[in-house]
Amino acid sequence: MNFTEIAQTRQSCRSYDTTLAVEEEKITAILEAARIAPSACNGQPYHFCVCSGEKVQEIAKACQGVGINKFASDAPVMLVISEEPYCKMAAMGAKLKGNDYRSIDIGIAAAYITAEATAQGLGSCILGWLDSDKIQKLCNLEGAVRLVITLGYPKEEKLREKKRKALEELVSRL
Ligand SMILES: Cc1cc2nc3c(=O)[nH]c(=O)nc-3n(C[C@H](O)[C@H](O)[C@H](O)COP(=O)(O)O)c2cc1C
To answer: What is the β-pairing status of strands 145-152 and 123-127?
Structure first.
């Protein structure tokens, strides 16, 4: 798959086949893609915690409420992305320029993770509706949890039409 095919094929998967486990090589490939993602000053201010089994059930509960993210309980694997401290340069840049580089870095890593998951034939969904404190405790993490990414084989593989703003709305040219 080339990048355009990955971008067009990736979609949030909210229905997982609970009978199919995710191969360890595929998880490694996904983590390797995240490892080589760009970040401000190459600081990589994040940690990835790979969860499966009972832990997924516990984390899923911390991502649910008012009918949101019910599907998360069926995901065979979850990647929990938490913050790590900035490196010195990025910390200085963030302060002087008032820019939240760490959240940007985590977003880029999440994009790499979901793109590689697609390339590996897996479904994925980025979850931002979560209880950071609860997941931090469940995973013994130092930093705040920003995203959880569900991974697994999709139950239904139908590609949905992408509903997006028109380019004219998103882009200006000067
Ligand atoms: C930062 C972020 C947080 C998100 N949080 C959730 C979430 O908690 N639950 C969910 O089902 N989808 C979540 N999504 C997925 C978006 O709803 C989805 O990417 C968007 O609607 C576009 O659809 P697509 O991914 O199928 O192309 C999140 C996506 C991002 C980037």
So the answer is: antiparallel
Whether 173 shows a pLDDT value over 90: the answer reads: yes
Would you say the pTM of this structure is higher than 0.85? yes
C-alpha pair distances (Å), 157 with each of 15, 49, 51, 81, 165? 9, 27, 24, 26, 24
Q: What is the pLDDT of residues 1-47, one digit of tens each?
A: 999 999 999 999 999 999 999 999 999 999 999 999 999 999 999 99
Q: Which of 15, 63, 66, 126 to mutate to test the pocket of ligand 1 (most atoms within 8 A of CB)?
A: 126
**Separation of CA 38 and ligand 1 centre (Å):** 21
What residue ranges line ligand 1, CB within 6 angstroms?
A: 11-12, 14, 69, 125-129, 162
